[in-house]
């Protein structure tokens, strides 16, 4: 129960950071928009080229690999920018969106390396899913979950310490072995809360369906539109909160600096202290 309580406190802390600096929400919005545009430019042509059976063609796998690299690059770039700004907020500063983007641009080499590394893993997992049937899907899910846990701290480590993929993964595992799993619990808590909140999105859909008889198809369309907008807003906030948690845990682990009395709820023992960057 102690870990879940700490995870809950971390989730509250991340929400307070976002409330203090709402511009942090810009980064997941940019990430989602650009990724969606890239997906459309890749998968619509791929669909027409392969007739919907993309994974039987060798060139489709090449396109998917390139798509992974581009999508991961955009996502990681925006996450680095968000974490840089969130760290500044926790230091009592008021960073601009430009600062975060500039910081991420200065780490582009490491971002691209990690994106390529992640793309290789992504394609391997996709191949296991497609070629292995039910067992392949189960194996890919288990491996994917283990990979997500092992790489939990990779982005801040890669960005702040300027480490390559292998070095960042080793450091991330070291953090986890040093009992820094509360961030994972916090992200699970955030995911659960936002899943429950997302259920409310079905209310306008249900209302639209009930009004179909008197107001026609427009009521249904309006209901779906409201639900989609609501879900997008929730997804943006949840994504930002999760990245803030990672940044806060990394900052606390490497510098001993807490935020909102985190040190009282989660005392930092000497065995947990990790060396970090000299500057932020």
List the keywords:
mainly alpha
Helix content: over 70%
Helix and strand run: HHHHHHHHHHHHH
Task: Please provide the count of β strands.
Answer: 0
Q: What is the end-to-end distance?
A: 33 Å
- Overall pLDDT, averaged? 85
Low-confidence stretches: none
Q: Radius of gyration from the CA trace?
A: 21 Å
What global shape is seen? Answer: globular
Binned strand content: under 5%
Figure out the total of helices: 13
Tell me the number of structural domains.
1
Helix-strand makeup class: mainly alpha
Largest sheet: none
Characterization of this structure:
- The chain has 280 residues and is mainly alpha-helical.
- It has one domain (2-267).
- Helices cover 80% and strands 0% of the residues.
- The protein contains 13 helices and no strands.
- α3 (58-90) packs across α5.
- The longest helix has 39 residues, at 217-255.
- The radius of gyration is 21 Å and the shape is globular.
